[in-house]
């Protein structure tokens, strides 16, 4: 019986599936092992910089320490320290932590290390105080299945990402304050150095971002330290004029001094810096950064600091000087996008536009019966997103590159009773990524998927060629000053191109923006 038992055991072993070896890649710091998910290889949680802890808090991203053997890249690293927003379109799937400088890569499983595929790099939004790479709608699998290597990275947000203080300037030998943007440049440098090992072409990198991520894309186009690190840009609801505050270094450092004083730290030298770095991460984060920004004294600078090396000036001023990366551009907004006003009624809203107020009233409230909320949303959305997108497109064209402008107006069928004014801010992301099922779950419809397939195809084509057009897609003309061409994604999941129907309104907003500067 023993031979029979041996034969039976051998047969059982042969019938047992052998687990596939995880996909591996070699980075400059060591090997990583990811996971194979169907036709896609995914590598999550790869460090692109040393943890920004202890002495590295409020310091430029430092090199990664090499590791021996093969590092497990099967799970996301922590999203960066923040107080997550319960209403976020892209809820986090990790516990935020100060140790967060990690990136992720999705690639076609069949792509070899020398494939030289186009690369798309995602920069998340969140007003520079929220956001991360772990949300399900940021999954890059659809791009990988379409032949694109997709990467996403974390960058420090809030007071960890934007902070100045005299002691920090003394330590660095120059004014500092924009660690979030330095993280972004560090990640792009990592991609330039390592992406070929994942089948990507470092000479065919496109960056894409939404909201604060779109603002980042626009600023990266003007930053000397980012020049040459990307070859195409997609800015979703990122504005384009410097309507949000960019603090002077003097203001930024005073905000840092006031933050330190709030926590009993008066020394402005090395001892004070050591004490600030010893503060618990939760203390640095605070409970409400918006309140801290507008407190008196302010203890959160609120965003960019014009410290002279990373952010050298306001992005619109730099573009007016011709300092814009000469790369093809896709840029636009949603049909019910976000804006900001402190006005409490229509009278105050139109008055805030000075001499352009009466004409804007006629354009946005012609018979005087429109509700304040709707007028405010439409006008400030165009002010913060629509007209600035056109402004950036014009500068891209002036730099000798093609620009493609859009308005995204599709609303998920399950949300139409709630979102009656159009597509709200950030709701286009799931369509560009083709992740609507992750966003809407069982409520996702065939028409939702059709709208996503269309939007996603334009993005894939743009990444591959710098031109979103392709077979079976409605033609998307390039932007120019004569035609003012615009592509609209419609509520019926189609897309149509036409001269910009919002031109007259945007011209009025442009006139106001020009007189303010």
TrEMBL record:
Residues 23-345, 377-494 form the Carboxylesterase type B domain. Residues 1-20 form the signal peptide. InterPro entries: AB_hydrolase_fold, CarbesteraseB, Carboxylesterase_B_AS, Carboxylesterase_B_CS, Type-B_Carboxylest/Lipase. Its EC number is 3.1.1.-. Keywords: Hydrolase, Signal. It comes from the Bacteria. It is an enzyme of class 3 (hydrolase). The keyword RNA-binding does not apply. The keyword Signal applies. Gene3D superfamilies: alpha/beta hydrolase. Pfam families: COesterase. Belongs to the type-B carboxylesterase/lipase family. This is Carboxylic ester hydrolase. It comes from Novosphingobium jiangmenense.
